[in-house]
Write a structure and sequence with these properties.
Layout (H helix, E strand, L loop, with lengths): L2 H8 L3 H8 L3 H8 L7 H14 L7 H4 L2 E4 L2 E4 L3
Antiparallel strand pairs: 1-2
Amino acid sequence: MKIKEIRMNTGLSQSKFANKFGIPVGTLQAWEQGRQEPPSYVVSMIETILKASAVPANFNPFYDSEFTVKNGSMDSRML
């Protein structure tokens, strides 16, 4: 995924995105406009950070994939 697509998916402005990841705004603009290429490791790190931040801290794949809580009671989807 290109850096502009990644930023657009976050809904952040160039300024906010650049600030969040410690990238100079001019550098981000150059990457998005194709005047420069971001290092592949930077793109990978940003994608990894954004994926990790999308997962709730209390997510447990062993329980959340099997059970849902509806109206205060636990229903099994796997049984």
